[in-house]
Amino acid sequence: MLSWEERRQLVKTANLYYIEGMTQEQIAKKVGVSRPVISKQLQKAKEYGIVEVFIKDESLHTVEIEKWLEDKFQLKDVIVVPTAGGSPDISKKAVGQAAANYVSKKLKNVEKIGISWGTTLAAFVQEYPYERNEKIKIIPLVGGMGSKQVDIHANQLAYELAKKMHSSCSYLYVPAVIESEELKERLVNMNDVRSVLEEGRTVDIALVGIGNPYQPNSILKEVGYLKEKDIKEFREAGAVGDISSRFIDLNGNPIEHNINEKVIGITLEEIKKINLVIGVVEGVGKKDSILGALNGNYLDVLIIDEPTATAVLNL
């Protein structure tokens, strides 16, 4: 128990520090003790409940979710973007903007950036600022040639991001999903395709989206890569979503389905080997897909909207 005199001194020191705004050095001179003594008194004031620190800000809730996700899945970083009440388009734009700000500050010593495809990554590219990074090359991580939704394909996103950075890019002129494994083998052995895939394996940063094939607006269905027969087989195989068109179950394992063998792009194991993999995701409908990606340890950084992060937390 503290004596009355000790308690009075702790209250006095805390008042000078927290209310009057004096530094520990100034308080030490005023009271006639060393600065470490003041530091210990302030710590003691917290321990005895004399001082209670409250953070009053709407960002606190998102910071708590970020910390929980970081600790639970051993992530290097998590950014949860407050988007409550906004439309999906506004939410996607906000996540894209947060991702753009994050990536633009992580480019020291970066020579190659890999990018997958999807609407959230398209929002990231759209929000990315114009800046000069001539030495950085952008690499598509998966094929995507086709006539539908061309603006969100990896080639187009690589081109647009390179334009924003005043840099260069490669192109992977093949579909994301091939009709047969035999045709895929022939295509990946072509010099141009093989060289781009090799570049993709050696990028410093990979930007990936996460998809859910069961959503009504699934891009893979819209562009014609998936048929209803595939969706039924995915359910039976336990698929919850895809990363760069490679399908996984809730534990993050690749599903047993031949579609994973028909994809032209870097593999899930190759994604894991990349130094920094940043998942850019928006939409509560993807919560199971995101959990699968986290359980599989494919991501180092997660940038996500608050409602979806909360949904993942509740799982």
TrEMBL record:
PANTHER family: SUGAR-BINDING TRANSCRIPTIONAL REGULATOR, TRANSCRIPTIONAL REGULATOR-RELATED. Keywords: DNA-binding, Transcription, Transcription regulation. The keyword Phosphoprotein does not apply. The keyword DNA-binding applies. It holds the Pfam family Sugar-bind. This is Transcriptional regulator. One of its GO terms (molecular function) is carbohydrate binding. Belongs to the SorC transcriptional regulatory family. Residues 21-40 form the HTH cro/C1-type domain.
